[in-house]
Amino acid sequence: MGSRWVRAAGAALLVAALAPAGCDSPPASSSPSSPVSSAAALPRVGEDLAAGPVPTRPKVSRETLDSFLTIALGTEYGDNDPTIAMWELPIVVVHLSGTLSAAGRTCATRTVADFNALSATTKLRITSGPGDIELHVAPRSQFATIEPHYVPGNDGFAWVTWPAGTNAIGHANVLVQSTGISARLRCHLIRRELTQAMGLLGDLGNHPTSVFTDDKDATPTQYSALDKQMIKLLYSGAIHPHDDRSAVTRAVTVS
C-alpha cells in the first residue's frame, strides 16, 4: 500500500496506488523504462481564472507542517528528489468516465467541492469533455489498457506527468476499481487518488481518519482536519513547484 514515485529521463512521473486489503504492494523498479512526456504532448485544457488574494506566509501547526513535508515531499519508492509537484493551472478540469454509479458521481462531485473550498489558487471543475485529469472507474482487469504504467494488484492508481524540469503537473490518469469492492472503499479511493493527483503524493501512518492513511483497514471518505490544512497549504499561493523542505519551511509560520 502506498505511493510510488518514479522518474524517467527528462520527465517526472508519479504513481500513487492503494493496494486492496490483504495484498502486498508489488515492488517498484529503481530504474524504470518509461516514455518521456513533452510539454506539447500534455493535455492542457484549464481555463483562465483570476486568483484571489492569498497569504504570503500561512500559519500552520507543527503537526501540519511535518505531515505536509511527509505527504508532499515524501516518496516510498524511486529516486531521492524530495521536491514539490503541483498544478499551476487556475482551473484543473476533471473528466469522469467508465462505470460510475450515482453514488460514485456524488462522491466525486463532493470531493471537487470540498477541495475547491480549501484551495485559494487552483480549482477543480468536472467536465463532460477531455480533462486535465481523467478519472476512470472501471474493472481492474482494464486498468493496464487504460493506463500502460498501471502496477497490477491495486484498486486505486494515479499516474501524473509534468514537463521536464518544471514539477508543474500537466496531466493525470486516475484509476478506481468499479467491481468487487464496497461503495465506501470506492468513494475513499476516488477522494484519495484524485487528491493525490493534485500533488499530495505520499502516505501518512498513524492517521486512520486521513484520506492519505496507510492503514489498509481505514477507508475515510471525508477530509480530516489535518487533510484540510495540508490542502490549504499546498494551494495557498505560498508553495511552488520544485520547492524543497527548506523552501517550504521558510514559506510558513509555525504557530
Q: What can you tell me about this protein's structure?
A:
This protein is of the alpha/beta class and 255 residues long. Helices cover 25% and strands 20% of the residues. It is built from 6 helices and 9 strands; from the N terminus they run E-E-E-H-E-H-E-E-H-E-E-H-H-H-E. The chain has helices at 62-73, 102-118, 143-146, 183-196, 225-234, 245-251; strands spanning 2-8, 11-18, 59-60, 91-98, 123-127, 133-138, 156-162, 171-177, 253-254. Strand 7 (156-162) and strand 8 form a beta hairpin. Helix 2 (102-118) packs parallel to helix 4. The longest helix is centred in the middle third of the chain and has 17 residues, at 102-118.
Helical residue percent band: 25-40%
* Class of secondary structure makeup: alpha/beta
Question: Distance N terminus to C terminus?
Answer: 33 Å
Give the topology string: H per helix, E per strand. EEEHEHEEHEEHHHE
Write out the strand line-up for the largest beta sheet, numbering strands in chain order. 1-2-7-8-6-4-5
Oligomer: single chain
The beta-strand count equals 9
The parts where pLDDT drops under 50 for at least 5 residues are: 1-51, 75-79
Radius of gyration: 17 Å
* Global geometry: globular
Beta-strand portion reads 15-25%
**Can you count the helices?**
6
Instruction: Please tell me the overall pLDDT.
Output: 81
- Biggest sheet, in brief? 7 strands, mixed
